[in-house]
Amino acid sequence: MAVLRGIQVLDFTTTIAGPYCARLLADLGATVIKIEAPDGDMMRDRQPLRDGASTAFGQLNAGKQSVRLDLKQPDAQAAVRRLLATTDVVVENFRPGVMRRFGLDWDAMRAVKPDLVYCAISGFGQTGPDAARAAYAPAIHAASGFDLAHLAYQDTRERPDNCGIYVADVVTAIYAFGAIVAALLHRARTGEGQMIDVSMLESTLSLLVAELQTAQFPQPPAGKPLFGPVRTADGFIMPAVASERTFQALARAAGREDWITDPRFALYPDRRANWGTLIDELEAWTSTRPTADCQAAFEVAGLPCSPYRTVREVLADPQLAHRGAFAEVEDAGGRFKVLNPPFRFSGAAVGVGGFAAALGEHTQSVLRAAGCSEAEIARAMGVVEAAVAG
User: Fold this and answer.
1) Largest CA-CA distance found in the chain, in angstroms, rounded
2) I need a surface site. Which of 134, 250, 262, 338 has the fewest CB within 10 A?
3) Does domain 230-307 have CATH number 3.30.1540.10?
4) What φ, ψ does residue 121 adopt, rounded to 5°?
């Protein structure tokens, strides 16, 4: 049985962080009802599109029901309050204050459902001088120090990287997911609901473990980074030299056990200061051999390493196939693969739901079950107002 079976979630989120958090809850068996504005989540328009259906949207929202509501309408707000009677968790990622304008903030909702777990995801948190600032992941990467910290590891680079991978969104989603599950455990023990305030800024800052400490206790320059690509005859490989044991494994693999006692490399501080020289000497060996041969030699010696792979190559990885890492999801455009949660339970089911709902696909069934009339449903969706305006 899925561990969150019987838990109902109202998902008011859009884009990436909130939807992925709520999808993880669905993956564990929760019933997730995605509340979408009349024009839908913006990710519905994102590539890849097939027959108008976005696989990016599907990956973030698989397994959820879709209810289309215009939250500016009093009937939509009333419909949400009816749904609260059977709801355990609310997730939203509006800018702070928006849900209050709808009359659906934490204080209003807990008045209807005192044991509700309410999770608000925002860029900078629900309170404080920056609480009202808008935020997307690229801005958070810059604001948190993440981008400049990453830049410090790049040789001869002065300009921060462009952003195409939204780290802040995913890490925030995971923190929010964990906090919600912890709050449900707290509720099971005490009967009490909980308001959870998750900040993208703090979530991203948590990734900068060493950097947070060296910012407080500056150290002299340490030389080149310890982790970087090593050239081979046909590409690059990443040897992860993270300890004395793995450094000695590197030396053995390269046939350079003299490095172990070489005063330039024998001790960690000296090795760090002379890292560029060490990599130059290593590449004199690796650059004459194919990547596969280098990988084999490193692994025999006990050195963690990997060739650089494309995502397309990773999709065909037999290890991931063995793990059942991918699930198939179907939408209006057909079937496609998405990644299951990266954890498994020994005695419970976990996995992505096999469908991605069309916009508003479940509006009628969900709101009828909550006791709404056809007229109320129409007004909640903004249909009457839209027809008059037309």
Assistant:
1) 84
2) 134
3) yes
4) -105, 130
